Amino acid sequence: MKKIANYLVSGMSVVAIVFSVAAFNKTCAATNGAPQMDHVTAVAVAQPVDLTYAAEKALPSVVHIKYVQNSKIQTVKVQSDPFEDFFSDPFGGFFGRGQGQGGTRERKVQTPKKTATGSGVIISTDGYIVTNNHVVDGADELTVTLSDNKEYSARIIGADKTTDLALIKIDGKNLPAIKIANSDDVKIGEWVLAIGNPLGLNNTVTAGIISAKARTLGANGVESFIQTDAAINAGNSGGALVNTRGELVGINAMLYSQTGSYSGYGFAIPTAMMNKVVDDLKQYGTVQRAMIGISGTDVKNYVDGEKEKGNEVDLGTMEGIYVAEVVENSAAEEAGLEKGDVITEVDGQKMTKFGDLSGIIAQKRPGDKVSITYLHNKKKHTKQVTLRNEQGNTKVVKNADLDVLGADFRPVTEAQKKQLEISYGLEVVKVNGGKMKDAGVPKGFIIQTVNDVKISSLDDLQEVVKEASTSKDPVLIIKGLYPTGKKSGFYIQLSE
User: 22 with 251: CB under 8 angstroms?
Assistant: First the structure.
């Protein structure tokens, strides 16, 4: 179980909690007929809901995942104890040993062994399983147990923190793979089932309806959740959200709760997003993420915020995506979008909230073309543009060797070169974790040299990291400058 954040919803503080196993369970109401009313109006007669077919169909495809992280020796900084320092090293004060800078020193500690459980969904008969990234992140061992109690060791094929999805593999044949439906086809009010292993209770099914689509919570980098009122508890993450035909429509990921247990709504990652992530992890080892190149919010949120400030705003619509910023050298800039514009459609699909935009772009790759319809000064414009990656081009991102750094990069723009009076460099556009975060490298820092090698491209950095990791001295000495022009440097130890 992983706590994500506190959110303010309707004046109440709500905790978004990610669980090791997620479960949503509900089904569609069946109707036997539609009797005629005055030979004009057809009236549907509601019948009792039978969830047994969907449960029987989907249960064998949902697995239990046991996570193990072995005990490790780590070096940590601790506050110095002058008495302990003196007796362990009475001459430390004279020769500079013992106490470190700021009254701290390094100490080796042994971390405890960690275990956790989660859920996963078999998507192919040869053993590919989808789950959440947070279910497997950092695992040294993964054990998968099927509904018939057969156990398998699993390996991680790939994982994506931005969508909180992971693909793992077991060596099996003729496994009970689930049928995958198109999540774009599900409707609000439709019954769904959530299947998983909550609270240590394996093979648990719960039911509810789809409460909303394209929800954004701010927990992951890319979000377009299916919201349901099916009960979800610790252990449900990675489990299946299925329709009344037993077909997968989402991967359960988190819930809103004031207590940490189910008391409100659960959220699932739609299969339309999952399919693209799975294909990328299989083919490239990393997700090829397309970028439209804006930051913004729902139009209603923007207008409400301006009203609270006493400002009157008329954007020509109350639905769509308000553009707060346009990224340089992006698809949005190519389309002519500017701050204050409103995106109303993408590929003919109506944009009512930011989750709609995230959902459709998450299914695209750099190089894909999309049609963007937007309002500029209330006038409608439609442009076809080519989506780009975070580096501002359409090439396949090759960052497998850079995963250890835990960051995203792109070459400096011409504007940055002119402003900072430099001719090359690689900008840190996002710090997700890993070695870069540990070293304190901030977003926006411009890398110019690593180990005295000029860095102009991602390939330059990748080559230096690859060479350094296999060298006698596996370190990176990074030199560059902040966006203000101030020069600085960082030291990264690649080995543990």
Answer: yes
Which one of 61, 64, 119, 164 is the catalytic residue? Answer: 164
Q: 7-60, pLDDT tens digit by residue?
A: 323 333 333 444 433 333 333 333 333 444 444 444 444 556 788 999 999 999
**pTM for the whole structure:** 0.69
- Interacting residues of 56 by C-beta distance below 8 A, sequence separation 6+: 246
Which entry of 61, 183, 211, 237 is annotated as an active-site residue?
Answer: 237
- Does the pLDDT value for residue 288 go beyond 80? yes
- Inform me whether the pLDDT recorded for 174 exceeds 50: yes
Q: Which residue from 338, 298, 358, 352 is spatially nearest to 322, judged by alpha carbons? A: 298
- Tell me if residue 164 is catalytic: yes
Is residue 403 annotated as part of the catalytic site, yes or no?
A: no
Amino acid at position 139, single letter: A
Tokens representing residue 436 in the block: 């870069």
Residues 6+ positions from 128 with CB-CB distance below 8 Å: 122, 157, 167, 168, 169, 278, 282
Known catalytic membership, residue 171 = no
Measured on CA atoms in the order 485, 491, 495, 496, is the torsion positive or negative? negative
The catalytic position among 20, 134, 211, 356 is: 134
Where residue 218 falls (left for φ over 0; alpha for ψ -120 to 50; beta otherwise) is left
Residue 398, phi then psi, degrees to nearest 5:
-110, 90
**Tokens of residue 405, six digits:** 């750094």
Q: Which residue has the tokens 């064998």?
A: 60
Write down the mean pLDDT value for the chain: 83
- 């995958």: which residue's tokens? 180
Encode pLDDT of 217-276 as tens digits.
887 888 899 999 998 887 889 999 999 999 999 999 987 766 666 667 899 999 999 999
Torsion sign, CA atoms 368, 369, 370, 375: positive
Residues recorded for the chain:
496
Candidates 485, 448, 269; CA nearest to 362 is 269
Token duo for residue 30: 């069946």
Reading the block at residue 340, the tokens are: 């204050």
